[in-house]
Amino acid sequence: STSIALYYQQRKRERISKKFTPRPIELRSDEVVSGVTGLIGNTPLVRISSLSNALGVEILGKAEFLNPGGSVKDRVALRMIEDAEQMGLLRPNTGSRIFEGTVGSTGISIATIARARGYDTTIIMPDDVAEEKVKALLALGASVERVRPASIVDKKQYVNLARQRASKFGKLDNIEESDPSLNAERPNILPSVSSSVVVTTTSHVNFDAFDLRDDEDFLTKPRGYFADQFENRSNFDAHFVGTGPEIWRQTSGQVDAFVSGAGTGGTIAGVGQYLKSVNEDLVVALSDPDGSGLYNKVKHGVMFDRKESEGTKRRHQVDTVVEGIGINRLTNNIELALPIVDDAFRISDAEAVAMSRYLVKHDGLFLGSSSACNLVACVKLVKKLGWTENKTVVTILCDSGNRHYSKYRNNEYLRNAQIPVDISIIEDLLRSP
Ligand code: PMP
């Protein structure tokens, strides 16, 4: 435990001096890999032929839907869990439980990795998230708590609830298991967390609150860990050390723009900062669904103009059929992105839906809603910059369409929500000057 204490001290020093370089984590190789986490990362870049041919500009998508947990979030979950283990905040097979507030993808990734590492998982999510994400979580043995969508200032908002639940872990004995047979073996220790062991996240470690060398049970106590993807620096690091360098390598440095949406902001911040560090001329553009405040923040420096603030600000959530991107508040990870985002594009539900259908029709690519949003933004960026040849734009294909049957891929749902399903929207966009 002395070495863990030293790690803490070092990490604290590095953060203060801002020279912290995240440690690389082993990602997928083409050798025999070790367990499910060995399947994460090193995803291919796929050329989107229909769009590339129509534009004369290479549009490449990072195929993150190929990760074992089905989304880009596997990288983040792995990094958050490994960093927490490094810092001594989590220890495998101690009956510890990871808590997270998420619209789904991150929860599925955490539950997957937790299963492989001997942790239990509790996911708190809004109750309007697509049903298949809940089913996947339950099948992975996670406990799921669904709550009414609420503002971030509300104690019952899902992220706030996850923090509270984590801090009370050990004091609560009524956690409901979706399937107890799937949960980690519990050692014969009463789950009482001593007050000296602060439940916290790697982003908010209160280094002075406890000294590990004085805590004899430190390594064996079960504890609650709030993963906190929105604020956790490990989220940024996963992309700064993993996704970004992979893109640079795969394109041999021939990349002119990077386009991404932001949910927590980790992807656009980490990849964007890395790519800018190796090519300062690279353009970073945000794809933002209608109703999100980030577009305004990038374009005008404020999240809401007066008119828009009425409906959206009150709810602090984004009213769109696109899941996973768009947000109406600033997070640590979004703050890390803002200095390097050059442009932003607002994408309507109709455009995102049309793009997803267009890609199936022309490319056989069955993608989720945020991927479609990103690709609409790629087209808009290329048109705006007047690029017609010799350029390469890279974006993230976050998850596959099979996470979206009940809403985004459900034409009846879309009809009721008065969102058109009309491929000509994309054909017109591609033809526009
Ligand atoms: N796409 C999907 C499907 C997601 O779940 C998320 C994460 N919320 C994102 C994109 C956005 O990634 P990030 O959190 O890194 O901004």
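^ 4'-deoxy-4'-aminopyridoxal-5'-phosphate complex. The radius of gyration is 21 Å. The longest helix spans residues 233-250.
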